[in-house]
Amino acid sequence: MSEITKQSLSELVKNIKDKKLSSEEVTQAFINRSEKSKELNAYITEDYSSALEKAKKFDQRPNFDLKLPGIPMAVKDLFCTKDIRTTAGSKILDNFVPTYESTVTQNIWDSGAILLGKLNCDEFAMGSSNETSFFGNVQNPIDKNLVPGGSSGGSASAVAGQLTPITIGTDTGGSIRQPASFTGTVGLKPTYGSCSRYGIVAFASSLDQAGPMAQNVKDCALLQEVISTYDPKDSTSIDFKRNEYSKELTNNIKGKKIGIPKEYRVEGMPKEIEELWQKGIQYAKDCGAEIIDISLPHTSYALPTYYIVAPAEASSNLARYDGVKYGFRAKGENLIDMYEKTRSEGFGAEVQRRIMIGTYVLSSGYYDAYYLKAQKVRKLIKDDFDEAYKKVDAILTPSTPSSAFKIGEKKDDPVSMYLNDIFTVPVNLAGLPGISIPAGHDVKGYPLGLQIIGKAFDEQNILNIAYAMEEKINFKNKITDWWIK
Amino acid sequence: MSIDLKTIKHISKLSRISVDEQKAEKLAGDLNSIFEFIEKLNELKTDNVEPLTSVAETTLKLRTDEVKSKDIREQIIKNSPQDNEDYFVVPKVIE
């Protein structure tokens, strides 16, 4: 049997069910490795001692019918966890201890998993490099001083670095798929309405979606099966028939029609990305898929649309942080002064910038020119996909326009940072599912990902395509444990 | 279009985020480059396009109006920066 932390979720589940490993052994192994990995700064809050207690309890009265029997797992610190501090990577929630549990994490614990701790992320999930977190940068296990991507940077780093067998992130414009691509891991953004948003710290409500991150497609499918449930507590949760994604997973994708959108061949895109894409097309063909050229004509308008819609919703969602009901409060001379100082001292620069953009585009005199305009363009972007899906079953694109960059490299240029999400943002705007799988390395040896976009509620199909391609690609992540002394 | 310092001050007031001169200048620069990028949308004619407000094609479900959370005052107050057991406390509003 290989080292515990190197095992995939499926292997761990099997070994626990076969009584070859106890939950305590597995939990202890991931705690030990997490303890040795502090330099990655993947955790914001650790909960190791109660994780061990829960593992021991599981071993005393094991229930092997559960999908995640005694499996330890750390989660992004954007999910409210009852009685465990939840910060959203922000100073303003530094001392916030939820009195309730998010539906997605509740589903995970109900399936037998055990919380290891809360993972670092960009402040309020606003960022593409994890550099906006109040709790500091996260290191990418691939190389020192390399960003892990964002906003689910701690989650990606923890999975790639084997600090947790699987995890969950949230994806508003690419926050699961981009860090998955940067760390050589698999990340799925489900269809909008598939996973409940109840208890997730809100960023942009019409775009936010939780999803699984894992070492491989099968683990991702299993976790998606656990977290995707209809939830009356989220009014945008959709009641549809959900598959048993991991059981129904097949690598038979013969005859599937896969679209290649010409607009994703963007100006200035490195040659390596184009080559990776061509390789991906060949892999898909090798799997028996039929490749069809398609057009998504409004692709280049997706980012500008996103940077109106997302900040507008954020400015409204973040109005709740006023220093009165919870979180950080600054001293002020009067009520208004207290509000203004609390928000000025409690939010970081990127969050303030986005609140300001959002406030401006929603303000009197500008609403029609910006917000309404963006909502109309959003319709055109969704129509593009609807039109394409008359001809194809799924769409194949690169996940990101480049591999991971150095910490600090793009920090002072918001627009260049935003361009990271060029291939992922359209998927959120249209509410579709998308998965990023590792597909190769660039000249520096950094991983590169391919994205498969599906029709709404067609997670099974893109998981199958990803599963089939994964087998052909046979990607090996180069983790050298450089951070372990 | 250009966002000047006066506009920044106005947005900062609407956002309830205090901004000093130095921060205002930095923000003006950042916002101008972001809006320059956003202006691209004006290339598109959208007069006859219906705005998309939600991708979830679902109508809101009705449910029975019943109390599900009882006696949770303590939970609600628990995280407040300042309280007196029964209320949230804020700086004096009425002189």
Oligomer: heterodimer
Provide the β-strand percentage band of chain A: 5-15%
Shape of chain B: flat
Report Rg of chain B: 23 Å
Share of helix of chain B, binned? 25-40%
Report mean pLDDT of chain A, rounded to a whole number. Answer: 97
What is the first-to-last residue Cα distance of chain B? 43 Å
Unreliable stretches covering 5 or more consecutive residues of chain B = none
| Structure class of chain B | mainly alpha
Q: If helices are DSSP runs of H or I spanning 4 or more residues, what is the number of helices of chain B? A: 3
Q: Uncertain segments of chain A of ≥5 residues (pLDDT<50)?
A: none
Structural class of chain A: alpha/beta
Mean pLDDT of chain B: 90
| Content of β-strand of chain B | under 5%
With strands numbered from the N-terminus, the spatial order across the biggest sheet of chain A is 4-6-5-10-11-9-7-8
Defining key terms:
heterodimer, A: 485 residues, alpha/beta, Amidase signature (AS) enzymes, 15 helices, 13% strand, B: 95 residues, mainly alpha, 3 helices, flat
What features would you describe in this structure?
The complex is a heterodimer of chains A (485) and B (95). Helices cover 36% and strands 13% of the residues of chain A. Chain A has helices at 9-17, 23-35, 48-60, 103-110, 153-160, 177-183, 217-227, 271-286, 302-317, 335-346, 349-362, 367-388, 414-418, 425-429, 459-473; strands at residues 43-46, 72-76, 114-119, 166-171, 186-189, 209-214, 257-261, 290-294, 394-398, 434-441, 447-454. Chain A has an eight-stranded mixed beta sheet with strand order 4-6-5-10-11-9-7-8, sandwiched between helices. A three-stranded mixed beta sheet of chain A has the order 1-3-2. In chain A, helix 7 runs antiparallel to helix 15 and helix 9 (302-317) crosses helix 12 (367-388). With 95 residues, chain B is mainly α. Chain B has a domain at 5-43. The longest helix of chain B has 18 residues, at 21-38. The two termini of chain B are 43 Å apart. Chains A and B meet through helix 9, helix 10, helix 11, helix 12 and helix 13 of A and helix 1 and helix 2 of B.
